[in-house]
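User: Predict the structure for this protein chain, please.
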Amino acid sequence: MSFGRIIPVRTMLYAAVLTLSACQEDFAHRAQAPIPPETVALMAQVGSDPQSPMLIRSYKKEAELEIWKMRSDGRYAHLKTFPMCRWSGQLGPKTREGDRQVPEGFYAISPGQMNPNSNYYLSFNVGYPNQLDRALGHTGGAIMVHGACSSAGCFSMTDKQIAEIYAIARSAFEGGQRNIQMQSYPFRMTPENMAKHRLDANISFWKQLKQGNDHFEVTKQEPRVAFCGYKYVFDATPVGGENMDVGASCPSLKTNPDIARAVSEKEEKDNAKIAELERRGLSPVRIVYQDGGQHPSFASRVADVSRPEAIEPPVEIKLEDKSRQTTKPLDPQITQSASVVSPATARMAAERHALETQTPLVRALASDPRRDMSAVAHEVEAVAQVPKKKTKRSAAPASIVKK
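Assistant: Here is the predicted structure, written as C-alpha cells:
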C-alpha cells in the first residue's frame, strides 16, 4: 500500500471518531437534561421535590402513563399524566417473545435499567419478566418505556415526553431511590371496567392486579409485592418468617390490620357497584384491537407513529352473561332441554350468539358450530392485524433491536 492511500484512511478514521464523539455528547446531553421548571414547580405544589422517590402507573386501554411523587409524609401524590403515543397488542398480559404484547403486572426499575444510549431517544427497561412471569413460563424481555412513538410491545412516548420522564427518574435515583415501582394495568381498575370485562379470559389475573391497585389507592404508599401459589401477594409476610416461593402454596400470612380493613372495605364497595351495574344490564364485552392503540390526543399525528395502519378504533364485541339467563336456552341451535346443557356449552352458545351479531368477518369465523370460541377470538385478533393499506411508517421502525 502506498503512502498516498494511507492519508485518506486516516482522515476517514479521524472523521469517524469525531462523529462518534458528537453522538456520545448528544446522548449525554439527552440523559442529563434537567426536569422542566414547570414540573419542578408542580412537585412543590404537591409537597414533593425532584429527589424524592417516584412511582409509575400505566393503563393500556386509556393509553395513559402516570407519574407519582412521594411527599414528606411518605405518601405518594399524583404529579402528571402523560398521554401514551403508542402501545401494541391487545388487553392482557405478555406471555411469549414476539407477541407484541405490552406487559401487565408489577415491575421494578433499577438505575442499571436506564439506557441513555437508546436508538429510541432515551429509554428504561421496566423489568419484565418478573418472578411470576417466569414461573408461568412467560418469555421475552427488553420491554421499555421509550421515545420515538414506535411500539412492538413497549410503552412508547414522544421524545419530549421520555426526556421529562427520564429526568424525573434520574433525579429520584440521585436522591437515593433504589427501585422505581411500575404498575402496569390493562385499564383503570374501576367497577365499570371490571364489570364490562367480567367474562374475559384474563379476569382472574386482572382481579389480582386490582388487589395491588386497591392497596395503593387506600394507602397512597407503594405496595410491597411478593409471590406465592403462582399469584401476586401484597403487603403480607409469612407468619413463620419463612421465604415465600412463587411456585409453592402460600403459607399463613400476616398483614397490617388497618390496611387489610381499608382494602376489604374498598373491595366490598366496588363489588357492590359491579353487582349493581350487572343488574342494570351492563353488557360484558370483549375488545379486539388491530394492534394496540394510542391516546386520542395523538389522532392528528397518526402518520408519525409505527404501524399507523393499525391505529383504528377497536372492535367491541358484546357478550351474553349466562349467569343472567333464565331457563330459556341461550341459542336456538340448542334443541335439547336446557337442563342437559352444560355450563361450558351454554357459555359457548352465548359467546357465539354475540359474535354472530357483529361484523361480517366475525360472523364468518363464528359460523362453524364446531369452532371453539377461544379460537374464534384468536383468529379475529390475527386477521385484524393484517394491514388494510400501505401507509408511511415511522422513521424509527420497531425492528430496531437496541431500545
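The radius of gyration is 25 Å.
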